[in-house]
Amino acid sequence: MTDEWRAALDWAGASLDSPVVSSQPLEGGMTSSMLALTHEDGTETVLRLMTHEPWRAHGAALTSRERDAQRALADTSVPAPASIALDADGTTTGVAGHLMSRLPGLGRESLGDSRLGAMARMLAIIHAITPYEPFRTYETWAWEAKWVVPAWTRHPKSWQRAFDLLAGPAPAHEPTFLHRDFSHRNLLWTDEAITGVVDWVETSTGPAWLDAGHAATTLAVASGPEPATRFLELYADHAPEPVDPYWLVMDAVGFLPPPGRAPLFGSPGQLARLDDWLHRLVG
């Protein structure tokens, strides 16, 4: 165990009346340090520590929202972690900290048709939930400051068409409970079944197709347009309203970095796949 997070690990142990005997970093964690913990009594938990900027500055709101989302999902069929303890202000843990249960399953990068279908059905289940208190209205990640045709594009006219579309009014939509970061990267699988839906810090209320669009863009960036397109086809069978390309374009543009900053993913292959996906959406 690392001494860097000794106070946080002690807090996690005290929260369950069972000391932490081992900790291992989990893969991913764009916003946070994610630690898999084993306690003295054999309990396995996950500790989120909001260590990465710019999310660290908003850690109290993000971890509190995740706690509230997990509580709202506790009596549903969505396999979300259970919130155990929260130190939103980082009083003990040093940064905002959220301790939650650990779910079974493994992440998957390669998704065949059956898993894409399971993704679509799970997203529809999430969208059918009506929490007792609505979550915040969604925030677009396609800020106007990002509306700059990227230097690496092979489809500059497509990006400009996307910016022109977003400059118009947003379509009317039915407010829906959103995960807001739903993607194959936030799912755990046991064989062909989803046994975990994680990372609820961005939970919001908004258009269902924005959630679907984010899942599709993430698939397109990782593996190309075929699984992304197939996912959208499968989700359409369950969607509460017809697709409006506006929301799909909003999500794809949201993957651009603000001017002067590097993309969150930087490999030439990933950028090319994002470029081709946006072109497909508006071309």
TrEMBL record:
Keywords: Transferase. GO terms for molecular function: transferase activity. Signal peptide: none annotated. InterPro entries: AGP_Transferase, Aminoglycoside_PTrfase, Kinase-like_dom_sf. This is Aminoglycoside phosphotransferase family protein. Residues 24-242 form the Aminoglycoside phosphotransferase domain. It comes from the Bacteria.
